[in-house]
Amino acid sequence: MNDKQVQRFVARYAEATGSRIVEKSPMHLTVKLSPAADRELTNRPYYWSYVDRAGVEPETMTYLFVTDSKRYDEQQLRQAKAEAEAAAEPGSLDQAAQSALARSIGFVHGSIQGRTPREDLYFGSRKLDQLFAAARSGGSYVCLFQEPERRSLHPFESVAYTAWLGVNLRVEFACDMKREEIHSYGISLATGNIQENFHERLSGLKLTPKLPANVHAARNGLTHARAMSLIEGHLERKLRAADFSWAEGASRRLQEELDILAHYYDRLLESAEEEQRDAIAAQFETRRQEIRWQYEPRVTVSAINGGLFHLEGIE
Amino acid sequence: MTRTVKEGGSGRLHPLVDLRMDRSWFEELQARVDRNGPWDDWTLYQLAMEAEQSRRIESFDELQCLRFLNGLEPMKHQTETAVKVLHDMGGRAILADEVGLGKTIEAGLVLKEYMVRGLVRRALILVPASLVLQWVRELNTKFGITAVAQKRAHTWNYDVVVASIDTAKREPHRDLLLGTDYDMLIIDEAHKLKNKKTTNYQFITQLRKKYCLLLTATPVQNDLDELYNLITLLKPGQLGGQGEFASNFVVGKRMPKNEDQLQEALSSVMIRNRRGDGDVQFTKRIVRNVPLRLSKEEMDLYEAVTAFVKERYEESGGSLTSMLSLVTLQREVCSSRDSVFLTLVNLFKKTEEDSPVRGKIWELIEVIKRIKANTKAEKAMELVRESDGKVIIFTEYRATQEYLLQFFRGSDITAVPYRGGMGRGKKDWMMDLFRGRAQVMIATEAGGEGINLQFCSRIINFDLPWNPMRVEQRIGRVHRLGQTEDVQVYNLCTLGTIEEHIVNLLHEKIDMFESVIGELDHILERFEQEESMEQRLARVMLEAPDEEALAEGIDHLGRSLRSLAEQPAASPKVRLSGADGRKLSRAERKQALNRLLDGISQPVEVDAP
Fold it and tell me: How many whole angstroms separate alpha carbon B428 and alpha carbon B434?
């Protein structure tokens, strides 16, 4: 994700959570968080439990999100210089007062305002990770309807809709290293028809949480559980055809490592005193488990998010 | 979270690979369908998917962590090391770079990479107490890894914890750690684990870990067993069983044999980068000797002490060992009266009550009393005042340190102390103060791993250690990678004293201050085969009947050091394996071990950033 994508991400997050964008430039966004976003992003559970219990009006935080810190800092510096120059002539008295103040109470920050913490957002930064997590926690399960493409003129004409179970799956191929794939599937609950790249299809549609008027749903022929296991079966067949040379390599390394271990511990056990033998054998077992843990090839499938999508037409 | 591993054959994707389906998401979906909601937001749904797509790990091989790091630009050898650990070593390795090449960065890269890939969540980092906070800071700021310093029992529950081994191995911590599976274990200054009989070693053996990095600049110091023990922590059996290792690779317990094979075996578990020859581009060192004339009172004391020391030496019939502490007296006069005083008081206590020496000590103390000012301290103050930046002042003596702190405080210059005996918290605090508010740090210790003071570029050697390596350590704290300024070194040098000779020896004769670590220790090792540098110097000093003889003696030392430096190191062809049955000197052994290390190391080019 480059800085432009990060900025777009933040702006859309702000909008979706009802936060207010106070200020915006290509390098930054100042955002007054909505209560929902504040709960996710500010790490102040105590404050929120106080608000909830006391029933007071929450005071949400405002963040300065900097998406291009280099250019932002340069600009701030230029601005500060310009201001200093402007202030230098008539404001010398002011300055003297400032420095006197500084002497008596220590360093004085420019002016005292409400705190707007700055967060530099870049791919990999902790705040952005938190935003990612927030998006995930607020966007895991949906139930949506396609908005009809054209208003039907006939009030009694009804459009047929099909319910789909859509799910985005992350597939992790792991040994001592790891690779991931994301698969997006939709399955028609009416017919059992499975579509790949379902998320792409959805992205091109207008979706709403409200059931549109003049719509009737096709009868579901599948339960959700059945649909889910059909998707899993489909994915599994696909994965079987994948390249497993990585797993063969990992297994070979695993075996080599196990052999080396065995060679070492067998010798140690042979020469060990009777009373030490159990301890050594236990250690051997621990080491063996560690190596398996490290190298054993495995594939894990888990859902990123998904939900029920009611789309026009019967498929 | 429920993990369903499907029964029987259907759970296998491939004869070698299990498929695990995590159905927790679906169960929650089902629950929401039954309750008819609540349902999440469509935009957030799309954002969540976008986030996942952007951080998807596309390939097994390509280093991912770099795109997650902002502002850190690792050097080429650091990235290469990380890649090698990840791909060729399966995440278990000894990182044995020479000092200053950035082992911490390499370890950070490896850790970050595994974290980004979701292969490491829980990591335990064990380091000397003095380095705990530094590690925490580096991981947080350079790598964006939320690491915490272990403070209380509950801190262990954090994902990435930095602690000292000494704390970790004690109850109640011990049980907690031994009951945890760590995705990654990192141990800094791992050479401290060379002895497998120690409790530290045994504790580490019992920890359960997946990946493991051992960091040390000196993986082998005295004999090959040390190396074997380290590797056993990492990968037991990598060099064969204990007996096989000894018979295959070791001669006479200590010396390597079958070096090529050994090097090959080592390079599968160890990476060592060393500075290439001549391509090191540090900033410059600008060394200035500041000659000082002692006040009349100070000089009186110096002469009185010198006479006293010589007298004792002659009385003892030339025994050197007992004299070293007396020579210290002379050196202390060149530092501060406080330090001489303290040593004399201790000496007084140790002397028999009826000994005539007691009276003589008393006389010396009378001479001390007449001294009112410290010429050197005044000069140091002047140097500090002249510069507007940070200055670090090194002294050998605690009493001098205390005196200087007082002295600077009296003149409104903020100075902080630093010494070996301080706890880790205090040391770190002092470093922070020095980085922030204090202009001056007064340090008695330069060793201590990992003190990095690149933000300071001025050093005052208030007095000089006699061991050139210690001088180098002092300068090395400041003159290292990351230093952007030329480094100014001031040697305060009192004329007409032993100090003048030492400065002369270190500076003029062996160019001590210009050379960079690395070669120097090799040279010194050869030089110190029978006697340490300190002892040799002391002997020359005590035995010289007059100034001229002293100068001549020191000159001689300088010349022999020089010639060692100019003569090329023993060629690798020369077998030192002691096949002729002769007992090997410590230096020869070390040389052979160094050669072994050099054999598996990669020279790298390092530019000063």
Answer: 10
Convert the pLDDT of each residue in A207-252 to its tens digit: 999 888 878 888 888 999 999 999 999 999 999 988 999 999 999 9
- Quick check: A124 and B69 CB within 8 A? yes
By DSSP bridging, strand B160-164 and strand B181-187 are unpaired
Partner B contacted by A277 (CB < 8 A): no
Q: Residue A314: what residue type?
A: I
In this structure, the dihedral spanned by the alpha carbons of residues B379, B385, B389 and B395, taken in order and rounded to 10 degrees, is: 30
| % of residues, chain B, pLDDT over 90 | 27
Distance CA B375, CA B335 (A): 9
For the whole model, what pTM was predicted? 0.70
B485-492 mean pLDDT: 87
Instruction: Give the Cβ contact number of residue B428 at 10 Å.
Output: 21
DSSP-assigned letter for residue A231: H
Query: Hey, is B534 helix, strand or coil?
Result: helix
Q: B269: how many CB neighbours lie within 10 A of its CB? A: 18
For B275-285, the pLDDT digits (tens) are: 765 444 567 77
Please determine, for residue B63, whether its predicted confidence score (pLDDT) is greater than 90.
no
Q: Which of A107-116, A182-191, B1-10, B122-131 has the lowest mean pLDDT?
A: B1-10
Res B455: pLDDT: 86
> Under an 8 A CB cutoff, do B117 and A294 touch?
no
At which residue do the structure tokens 């949480």 appear? A209
Share of chain A above pLDDT 90, in %: 56
Whole-number average pLDDT of chain B: 82
Give the integer Cα–Cα distance in Å for B56 and B477. 41
Handedness of CA B205, B206, B211, B215 (dihedral sign): negative
What one-letter code names the amino acid at A181? E
- CA distance to partner chain A, nearest, from residue B64 (Å): 11
Instruction: Identify the band that residue B114 occupies on the pLDDT scale cut at 50, 70 and 90.
Output: very high
- What 3-state class would DSSP assign to B490? strand
B436 to chain A, any CB pair closer than 8 A? The answer is: no
Q: Are B555 and B502 in contact (CB under 8 A)?
A: no
pLDDT for the residue numbered B192:
86
Max intra-chain CA distance, chain B: 102
Q: Which of A10, A175, A180 to mutate to test the interface with B (most CBs of B within 10 A)?
A: A180
pLDDT at residue B449 is higher than 60: no
- β B255-256/B250-251 pair status: antiparallel
Query: Residues of B numbered 197-236 whose beta carbons fall under 8 angstroms of chain A's beta carbons: which are they?
Result: 205-206, 208-211, 235-236
Pairing status of strand A28-32 against strand A20-25: antiparallel
**Residue B266 Ramachandran class (φ > 0 left, ψ -120 to 50 alpha, else beta):** alpha
Structure tokens, B179: 């009951």
Q: Work out whether the CA dihedral B440, B446, B450, B454 comes out positive or negative.
A: positive
What span, in angstroms and rounded, lies between the C-alpha atoms of B409 and A209?
A: 71
B401: closest CA among B421, B383, B385? B421
Mean pLDDT of A61-67: 91
**Taking CA atoms, what residue in A is nearest to B36?**
A143
Other CB atoms within 10 Å distance of the CB of residue B515 = 15
